[in-house]
Amino acid sequence: MIALRWTHDGRSALAGLVGGGLVMLSRDGDERWRRDGHGFGLSSLACHPSSTQAVTGGQDGRVRVWNLEDGAVVADLDAGAPWVEAVRWNTAGTMLAAAAGRGVRVWSRDGVLVREWPKHRATVSDLQWQPGRDLLCSTSYGGVTLLDPARDEPLRQFSWQGSSLVAQWSPSGKYIATGEQDSSVHFWIVDTGKDLQMTGYPVKIRELSWDHTSRYLATGGGNEAVVWDCGGKGPSGRTPILLPGHEQRVTAVAYQHGGSLLASGGADGRVVLWQPSAKKVLVGATQLSQAVSQLSWSPDDRELLAGCANGDVAVISRP
Asked: Is 234 exposed, middle or buried (0-12, 13-18, 19+ CB in 10 A)?
């Protein structure tokens, strides 16, 4: 399973499958509809923040907007290159962005092309909107690029000699955290451009999740979930919180939208709930049938969706 997301109202869930299929599920697990999403495979999906629409990107170079009520395609857009790495709605849901090849494109909600930046330094690996603002960050070999849809040229570049795989803005917008090919986590302080690098991980980092206060960042990168305290002067010089609840590599981490619970999923099929800032850190655990590939909290933070490598989906209630 490539992607698993709740709809904006928490009544349904949307699953993106490796083979390109798109499946709409009710909250009780019934399949509402199934569509052939993309030839060659689906690579990314995002549900609209306030309506019954979703956007998907695929290895066919297409970006498609779907009506979730009936599974109809309402827009079919050219991403500009084969293999769409990421599709994202902005916070207001008025624009959507896609990364494909060395380029990034932004459209209005009705499918009108707003801006294109076709010449990144290398293939764009991830794309994220700043929470509450119409500002994008993109990652590639060479660092992070800030993009403003109101400008033709990139707004700013945070350069370093490495390959950034994934990015996450802190909810406050102060930090951009990136997971790196060289098995490290990079922190960029957006206002100053200063950076911090946290090393010592055994494998490359693809799992990142901020808590809603922007104080804690959870990562994968080994058999333990790792939590960095970014409060005050930041994580530099601090020892991270280590959460040893998996026998195999951590493959997904997800903080609640507004609570303090952290979920981690592993290649061992185990989903563990933590409260890293509490005295009793371990909250509960569930064993699933296969390796966990996706975790997603419901909008009300009461239930956790867990997607497995074999396509199974589980709904785990908060204790």
From this structure: middle
Mean pLDDT of 208-236: 95
Query: Smallest Cα–Cα separation from 58: which of 22, 94, 26?
Result: 22
The span from the CA of 89 to the CA of 81, in Å, is 19
Query: Sorting pLDDT into bands at 50, 70 and 90, what band is 31?
Result: very high
Specify the long-range contacts of residues 187-192, CB closer than 8 Å, at least 24 apart: 187/230, 187/234, 187/235, 188/144, 188/158, 189/234, 190/146
| CATH architecture designation of domain 218-319 | Beta Barrel (2.40)
Calpha distance 65→169 (Å, rounded): 24
Which tokens go with 249?
A: 């590599």
DSSP run (H or E) holding 287: strand 282-287
Tokens of residue 169, six digits: 């803005």
pLDDT score of 227: 97
Residue partners of 73: CB distance under 8 A and separation at least 6: 64, 65, 66, 67
Name the amino acid, one letter, at 13. Answer: A
